[in-house]
Structure formats: C-alpha cells, structure tokens
Automatic annotation (TrEMBL):
Highest classification ranks of the organism: Bacteria, Bacillati, Actinomycetota, Actinomycetes, Micrococcales
Gene Ontology CC annotations of this record: plasma membrane
Gene Ontology MF: a single term: diguanylate cyclase activity
Sorted UniProt keywords: Coiled coil
Family matches, as CDD domains: GGDEF
NCBIfam families: GGDEF
Xref: Pfam families: GGDEF
Name the record gives this protein: GGDEF domain-containing protein
Record organism: Cryobacterium shii
GO biological processes: cell adhesion involved in single-species biofilm formation; negative regulation of bacterial-type flagellum-dependent cell motility
Superkingdom as given in the UniProt entry: Bacteria
Residue intervals of the GGDEF domain: 360-490
InterPro entries xrefs: Diguanylate_Cyclase (IPR050469), GGDEF_dom (IPR000160), Nucleotide_cyclase (IPR029787), Rev_trsase/Diguanyl_cyclase (IPR043128), TPR-like_helical_dom_sf (IPR011990)
Record has Coiled coil as a keyword: yes
Length: 490
C-alpha cells in the first residue's frame, strides 16, 4: 500500500509525502526480501529526489534500483531502473552517461513485448539527445548527428504511440518532435507537428500540453526571425490564468520575452519581464529549498542517520563504482573473462549501427573447439576449463579494440570483426586456428591436442542479426563436416 501511495503522491507533485511513504515502504520490503518491489520503490524515490534537486540521493536510489532488478532477474524492472538512471544522470549534467544509459534501456526494451516500455525508451532517449545537442551547440560542437539520431528515435516513438491508439503518449512524443525540429531549423514541419499535437491535446482535454504547444508555435515563429509576431503570441499566452499552475512554462515565456524585447530595443518591457522572471525563479528556488529541507528531515528521521555532505558524496561515488562493477560482472563470463551473451545483446547493435553509419563491412566468425567432449571425458572437466581459458587468450590475440569476442556458451565462441572485409576476416580466422593447432596443449595434460573450426559470414545489409549469425553457424557446421580444423566462409 505504501509503495502505491508513494507513486500516487509523486504523480500529484507531493514530493515530501512521496519520499516519506517510499522510505517506509522500503523498510518493509527490505525485511520481506521482495527485490522486485524494492526496485520499483527505488525508482519512485529517485524521481522524487531528482524533481526536487536532491541529486545525490536520487543517484543512490537508481543504483539500488538497478541492483535489485538484476538480483531478482526481472528484465522489465531492469529497464525501468536504467531509464530512471538515465534521467538522474541527465539532471546531474552528466549527459553523456545519461545518453548511454538511455541506449542500454532502449536495447533492453527491444527484447520485451511491451509497447509502453518501447515508447518510453524511445521518447526518453530522444529527449536526452535533444539536451545533449543543446549543450554541444553551446560548446561550439556540431549537434547535427545527435539531433538527427534523436529525430529518428522520436519519430519511432510517435509511430509506436499512434499504433497503440495512446493519444497522451502520442501528444507527448509530438511535443518532443517539435522541439528537435526547431533545433534543426525545420520550421515548416515543426509548425505542422505542433498543430497536430495541439489538436490531439484539445480533443482529449490535455490542457497543459495544449498550452505548451502554443508556446512551441511561438518558438517556431521566433526561430523564423519574426520577433514581433512571436512576442505578441507569447504576451497573449501570458493572459491565460491556467499558467499560474505551470511555473516552468511561465519562466520560459518571460525569459523568451525578455530576450526578444531586448533584441528589439524595447528595454523597458524587457526589464519588466526580467523582473518577473527573477521573481518567479526566486519563488521556485525558495519553494524547492523548503521541500528539500522537509524531505531531508524526513529522510534523516526514517533512516536514523545524519549524513554529512562529504560522506554523502563518497557513498554516492562508491555506489556508482559498485554499480559499474555489477554491470561488468553481469556481462562477463566468469571462466574465460570474455564478454557473455548478455554483453553480445548489448554491444552488437552498437557495432552494427556504426558499421551502417560508416558504410563499413562487418563479419561474424562462429568458433567451436573440436571434439571438446573428448577432452572432458579423457582429461577431466578441470582440464577442459583450462582449455577454454587458454582458447579465450588465443582469441584475444587476434581481437582488436574495435572487435567483439564473446563466449556464446560451452566450447563455442563468437568473434565480430569491425571494418573487416571477408578476405581479411578469413586471414584472421586462419591465424586463429593456426595458433590453436600450434599451442602447447601437452603442457596442460599429457597427450592433449586441440583444434578449432570456424564458420565465417559477412553481414548483408538486408538481413537480420538472426539470419546473419545463422549463416555463420551453418558455415561452422560445414567446417565440422568438412574435417574440422578449418575455416569455411558462408
């Protein structure tokens, strides 16, 4: 019950009560050992702390959410924890980490048959791209690649929401789409999509979103250089009494009006908006500080701890490192120390995207130790484990930093070679099996000799991952049937 109250209070903007109920819920769930529900409550608390600017506390809870989700093996919970973690890191100004976590969440969402999860992953990552691009622009960097990536993500989010008939999600995604189009100076489409979003908001009674769409339309007009028209639109919007319930939008409007009046030489009106902007900002800061104070007092009382600022920072850093270690462990095969299948699912899409963006070839080599069962039967499983560990070392010897070597399972490995033609890949694989053939296996056990077979396939543009790897697997079987200790290309 308390976890539901925490979530409900969060949605109502009652952050103080959300934190109090969430911490009490955590106490009970920790005692019961319910990791799944613990992860959900940690996510709720992370959002409450983020929205009130308590970033260190937010970071602690998202890290705990990820750990609890992974410990209970729930992929959906892990997705939400990664998604919330992306939000927290973005709010802390660590946009690169926020984007990376968003990418991980999106990759995880692709494995789930859940349209809502898929929409959230796409829409949130597109928003992270928008924020990252704005920072890149300020830093004098080219934001175009990031913006175009975000554009493709948010278009997909709109399509997902539309296909599900979820008008609220569609309206939200359209709002993000308009923001990215404005950054790309695609004014005509930005106006069209803002009108589409406003129409949906109007029909379905999403008044806050409709008001935001009006502000976006004014931003489009401003971006086109029509300052007087944009000014008139924003001044008219300020007359809407409902804006009193939306301080962030009020601040945005006064800030834009201050800048436009100043640019147009209307300094008295610019000053008036600047004064209102200052008053609103001060009021929000004061209110936030009061909420933060109450939340921290509640937190200290419930947790019975008096955290000093330096210790909090240290604990947050330790938790971050621990989370990275857990992530590394979750993606590493303990015997060979190679990435495992989970890491393959995470990293392979990145390699494929890079190869496609740069028009580079990508080859997959399926590798299998020959007669490995005989090694275990004759020499024992301990020697078999040593053979696999040595095989991993030989595999690293032909693997570059840009490649990916994975233990798929048992005695089978996968080598993905980036920016490598089929002919080059075949040479790499020939070197590999020669090193296996020539290795001093007898040092591990008297009479031991090992070879390996390889099936090689270059990825074709039109085929899926499953089709590509299936061709490599078929080539591996051909190598086995052809006498083993050889490379066969699909």
């Amino acid at each position: 019950m308390r976890e539901l109250l925490a979530l409900h209070r969060l949605r109502l903007g009652d952050f103080k009560e959300a934190v109090q109920q969430g911490l009490l819920a955590l106490e009970a769930l920790t005692s019961s050992g319910d990791l799944l529900r613990q992860s959900k409550v940690h996510c709720t608390l992370a959002l409450a702390f983020t929205d009130t600017g308590l970033k260190e506390q937010a970071l602690q809870h998202v890290l705990a959410a990820i750990e609890a989700a992974r410990d209970c093996g729930n992929t959906t919970a892990e997705f939400w924890a990664l998604s919330r973690s992306s939000t927290v890191h973005g709010s802390m100004g660590d946009l690169a980490r926020g984007v990376e976590l968003g990418r991980q969440a999106l990759a995880l969402s692709r494995t789930l048959d859940d349209p809502e999860v898929n929409f959230v992953a796409l829409n949130n990552l597109s928003d992270s791209c928008l924020e990252a691009a704005r920072v890149q622009r300020v830093q004098g960097l080219n934001p175009s690649p990031t913006l175009h990536w975000g554009l493709s993500l948010v278009r997909e989010a709109v399509a997902v929401a539309h296909a599900q008939g979820h008008t609220f999600f569609e309206t939200i995604a359209l709002t993000n789409l308009v923001s990215i189009l404005i950054e790309l100076d695609e004014h005509d489409e930005a106006r069209e999509q803002a009108g589409r979003s406003k129409a949906l908001a109007n029909v379905n009674g999403f008044h806050n979103l409709e008001v935001n769409n009006d502000a976006q339309l004014a931003e489009v007009v401003r971006a086109e250089g029509h300052l007087d028209d944009a000014t008139a639109m924003m001044e008219a919007q300020l007359a809407d009494p409902s804006l009193d319930n939306d301080p962030p939008l009020l601040i945005r409007l006064h800030e834009s009006l201050f800048e436009m009046h100043k640019e147009s030489g209307r300094f008295e009106r610019a000053l008036a908006h600047h004064e209102k902007l200052h008053a609103l900002t001060l009021n929000m800061t004061t209110q936030t500080a009061e909420i933060q104070s109450q939340m921290l007092i509640n937190t200290m009382g419930i947790e019975q701890a008096n955290h000093e600022a330096e210790r909090s920072q240290l604990e947050a850093e330790m938790l971050r490192i621990r989370a990275e270690e857990l992530e590394q462990q979750a993606n590493t095969d303990p015997l060979t120390r190679l990435p495992n299948r989970r890491a393959l699912d995470r990293e392979l899409p990145n390699l494929m995207d890079r190869a496609q963006d740069l028009a580079q070839p990508l080859c997959a080599a399926m590798i299998d130790m020959d007669h490995f069962k005989r090694v275990n039967d004759v020499h024992g499983h301990g020697i078999g484990d040593q053979v696999l560990a040595e095989m991993a070392t030989l595999l690293r010897g032909v693997t570059r930093e840009s490649d990916l070597a994975v233990r798929v399972g048992g005695e089978e490995f996968l080598l993905v070679l980036a920016d490598t033609s089929p002919a080059q890949a075949e040479k790499v694989c020939e070197r590999l099996i020669a090193s296996v053939r020539g290795f001093a296996w007898g040092d591990l056990a008297e009479g031991l000799a090992c070879t390996a077979s390889v099936g090689l396939a270059a990825r074709q543009t039109s085929e899926s991952v499953a089709q590509w790897l299936a061709r490599a697997d078929a080539a591996l079987y051909a190598a086995k049937n052809g006498g083993r200790d050889r490379v066969v290309a699909a």
